[in-house]
Amino acid sequence: MKLSLCTISFRHHLQSIDQIAHYAQTNGFQGIELWGVHAKNLAEDIHYGSEWLSSYNLETTMLSDYLPLDAPLPVLMTEMQRLCALAHRWGTKKIRTFAGTKGSADISRLERIELVSRMKMLCKMAEAEGQMLLVETHPNTLTDNPSSTLQLIEETDHSALRVNFDVLHIWESGVDPLFALKQLRPYISHFHFKNIKSRSQLDVFAPNNVYAAAGSREGMVSLFEGAVDYRMFLKEASDMIEMDASLEWFGPNVKDILTQDSKEIKRVLQAEKALKQI
Fold it and tell me: CATH number of the domain that 138 lies in?
């Protein structure tokens, strides 16, 4: 497994990109998932990019942003061009976005047709740059469950459209993540790992809360202490697919939790590998 940390985890912490890269290098991570806001804010400093990051033996595994799919077309295209340029600078082929702002049960047929049309356009732009557009499985978007995600892939019908498989949000949709993995496996290019203490606390991940400095962090727990059984998921998933994954932590004690979870992931995978060799 190639394991990355998300720079979004440090969104409310006074940490430079240099400090984050040093931490990642010295704690067993192979890459960073760069938040779009961070990439944009570093754009004027030519010192930073893929060559700089490689000096830490790290790579940018994904550029994660939120394309304004409901904006006027020129605005959307300009933003996509900007992200493609940033992805080139940081040496990643993966650009992550959300599939709109309405859930699959709430979007109208005409709205869905328009969104699919825009996704096709964005995929063509990504393909022209040798890149991929990843839609994240996320509530209140068109990829809020595996069935709608598969439908979007079929409707868009473009090889540049891929999936960022967020294990927790798949579980939130009511579908067993391992079952969903079997359905979506041909289209998955990245994973997000995070957990929650109980289903009743999932609202803590709502964007208007999780991005707020004063938002609640109640229920956010270490990867192996929550309601989603990551030991089982990792053991089974490691047999199905080569995983390129990011630890996405939104709570306090960022470095302590990331260090703890990355070590435990390695222990679980090493134990599983040893079992197979017996």
Answer: 3.20.20.150
